[in-house]
Amino acid sequence: MTENSFSQPIVHISVEELAQRLASGDPSIQLVDVREPQELAIAKIEGFVNLPLSEFPEWGDQVPTLFNPQAETLVLCHHGIRSAQMCQWLIAQGFTNVQNISGGIDAYSKLVDSSIPQY
Predict the structure, then answer these.
(1) Does the pLDDT value for residue 119 go beyond 60?
(2) In Å, what is the CA distance from 73 to each residue of 24, 26, 28, 89, 117?
(3) Is the dihedral of CA 34, 39, 44, 47 positive or negative?
């Protein structure tokens, strides 16, 4: 999965917007974290489903049954590159409301919640 293999524009949201969406408690928001398990062991935001990009062959075909393609789907990684790749892939699979979290968990830790460790 490479970013250049897709051509759809990606919608980005800031980490501050993410914090607002999380605080809203909206149960219809789908939260996806594409970081690796060792990264989650260091820092995570509760409520995200972990789908490591390196394990794509294991979970790729399950995405249509795990998530609603019409629901708001927010995608997180460390800085925003891998999550952008996942956003492109989700859009290509027919997802209609996908948003990349700009700056990833690194920016979230710096700008929103300093209790989340940086790495």
Answers:
(1) yes
(2) 15, 12, 9, 12, 24
(3) positive
* Coil/strand/helix, residue 14: coil
Single out the residue of 11, 23, 118 nearest to residue 74, CA to CA: 11
Among all residues, which ones are annotated catalytic?
77
Q: Tokens 């927010």 correspond to what residue?
A: 74
Q: Could you tell me whether strands 11-13 and 30-33 are parallel, antiparallel, or unpaired per DSSP bridges?
A: unpaired
Distance of alpha carbon 116 from alpha carbon 106, whole angstroms: 9
Tell me the per-residue pLDDT of 29-60, one tens digit each, with 9 for 90 and over.
Answer: 999 999 999 999 999 999 999 999 999 999 99
Cα→Cα distances 30→18, 38, 42, Å: 12, 22, 22
Q: What is the pTM of this model?
A: 0.92
